[in-house]
Amino acid sequence: MAVAKRATLADVARQAGVAIGTASKALSGAPHVRQETRDKVLAAAESLQYQPSMAASSLKSGRTYSVGLITSDATGRFTVPVILGAERSLATGRMAILFCDAHDDPVRELHWVQRMLARRVDGFIITSHRSDPRKSLTGMMNVPAVYAFSPSEEDDDVSVVPDDRQGGRLAGEHLLEVGRRRIAYVGGPQSYDASHLRGDGLVDALSAVGLELVTAPLFVEWSENAGRQAARALLRRDADIDGVFCASDQIARGVSEEFQHHGVAVPAEVSIVGFDDWDVMTLATQPALTSVSTNLDRVGEVAATRLTQLIAGVPVTPGIERVPCDIVIRDSSI
Fold it and tell me: pLDDT tens across 129-174, in order?
């Protein structure tokens, strides 16, 4: 039985109609290749079942075409979308991911950094289940690192996070669009930056039309029960509220259920908007919860793109890059 001839890089380039050097750059994920060209090369490689020799590529470039991805919470609802987005982006450059869960343990985290450096990874993506700034690990690495969702405390590092303030502004603008004018805010714990940024965004939207919060903001735990307690506190204030923005979907579900328990119709009398677009909460809430999506998969994609650029020697502006949020409108607000 004849063995099929293995496709070469020249075969891929010929089928895609590009030079061999261009095909090589497109397959390696190198920058400065037009997306249309990259797509043609990738399609040709798939059609020909082309498999590059990673050993040869490593010897030539000094790279291993692998990235270390360290998280503190491998099964968390915040980190999983970030990881999937990063994987999707890195796969286009034929890069492998070495994945480790530090279980929120700094000692274990350091251990995995050292183990991955011993395996000569080309760079790191570091993420966590908390959106607050975290201690930098870059100083103990000899390769680039990008922080996703949980930004580094160091201004010289590259971090990619959701734009919490812009998301809060989206929530406020939506409530105004549906005719609400007496709007309250229920944030998470005051120790979290996200609680303040999301509330600031709401205030930005209200200020743009000459309005203020109808009552002082409340700050509670990230839970449904805390949302119920907040709803009772708002009702006691007798502020004639017609809209509530909550800093998480869990809080928003509690607020919605407690309002309805006290005879306040949602959304006929009060529109409610949550944050995170966690379908476990948004779709289980009745009526279904309008929520701000943090686009965490996009956060992961952008973080992986920035890491690929750093590995390739392309300058990347240090600091925090904020990925825009979207709002998903459901029955709780209209």
Answer: 888 999 999 998 989 999 999 999 999 999 999 999 999 999 999 9
Long-range contacts of 37-40 (CB under 8 A, 24+ apart): 38/92, 40/16
Q: What is the dihedral of CA 333, 221, 188, 224, to 10 degrees?
A: -10
Name the CATH code of domain 164-294 (choices 1.10.10.10, 3.40.50.2300, 3.40.50.720, 3.30.70.120). 3.40.50.2300
Class of domain 60-162+295-323: alpha beta
Average pLDDT over residues 50-76: 70
- What's the pTM value of the predicted model, to 2 decimals? 0.80
Residue 10: count of CB within 10 angstroms of its CB: 10
Residue with tokens 């034929």: 94
Residues composing the chain: 334
Q: How far is CA 161 from CA 261, 319, 327, in A?
A: 36, 11, 17
The dihedral through the CA atoms of 42, 46, 49, 55 has a sign that is: positive
Cα separation of 224 and 299, whole Å? 26
Domain boundaries, given as residue ranges, for the chain? 60-162+295-323, 164-294
Confirm whether 60-162+295-323 and 164-294 share one CATH topology: yes
Pairing assessment for the beta strands 66-71 and 96-101 based on DSSP bridges:
parallel
Report how far residue 13's alpha carbon sits from residue 148's, in angstroms, rounded to the nearest whole number: 35
Chain segment 281-322, per-residue pLDDT in tens: 999 999 999 999 999 999 999 999 999 999 989 999 999 999
Structure tokens at 47: 């059609």
Q: How far apart are CA 192 and CA 199, in angstroms?
A: 12
